[in-house]
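Hi F.,

I've been meaning to write this up properly since the lab meeting, where we talked about keeping a consistent format for the predictions we share between groups. The idea is simple: the sequence comes first, exactly as it goes in, then the structure tokens exactly as they come out, then a line or two of notes. No screenshots and no reformatting. I'm using this chain as the first example so we have something concrete to point to.
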Amino acid sequence: MGKRVGVLMGGWGEEREISLKTGEAVVAALEESGHTVTRVFAGPGLDRVLRSAEMDVAFLALHGRMGEDGKVQGLLELLELPYTGSGVLASALAMNKPFAKKLFRLHNLPTPQGYRIGRDELDKLQERHGDLGFPAVVKPACGGSSVGLAMVNDVEALTAAVAQACRYGGEALVERCVRGREVTVGILGGEVLGSCEIATPREGFDFDAKYKSGSRYHLPPRMSPTRVANVEQLALSAWQALGCRGYGRVDLICSDEDNDVVLEVNTLPGMTPTSLLPKIAAQRGLSFPQLCQRILDLASRDEAGVTEAPETATVQPAPRRAVGG
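Output, unedited:
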């Protein structure tokens, strides 16, 4: 039976346009599968819109800050609406790349060396950079779609790139550059769906390379089956380390020295016609509507085990106190 699905798209951040493309693609796929679909354009007042919308489940087509970082997920928990993708904590951890890297290391998962720096610490940049060396990769500490990503080769470029990255959330992550193949692994229902190698015309899979063509994709990656299997297991371990659920995508670098490192986990990966997860699904024989249906079937809420409140939330004015003496 078809469900009443609200597809949340748009949002507040710099990835709004990508989210709208994802949302429209998902809407068309879900309607093709027989669901009643409502477009929910996220922004200020989203709580009121969700309360008035007639929906059984939320399909999150949001990307980046305020959509992928646990905030909207928390709102949906309060509204008791199941939603696609990871829960509140996993979403927040995955979006905050410095914290995610700490958890990767705690689970003995290799990840590039690096440091976090805020916009109010730019005067300490050279000291913080220390002997990390060049080339280095700079990106917003919380963000996605490769917005604000830059490869730098000297201190002057580093300073400019960090200042630019800090425009997106106030913090930047600087990492040692690991050269090798860029590989992304799709996860669906707690299992590896497949993997894809991204070959770009220049170093770094930045925003232009991701969305303005020029990249080539190899499914499966151009490595031995044994190494591909090891890389996919590493990706699944990273996804599990953050407590993710439903579906996602894990980005890695597979170096020429056979050392593989985890870059980040995407809890709401892109679902546009050029997005990587649909390419991986197609390689496994899953059409785009079938992929969207599988993701919808995995929608849930956090199992918090909270005792039911005795009454609904209300507002009660505080009693006036007498003034005087």
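Notes:
Residues 16-32 form the longest helix (17 residues).
The longest strand covers residues 180-188.

If this format works for you, I'll send the rest the same way.

G.
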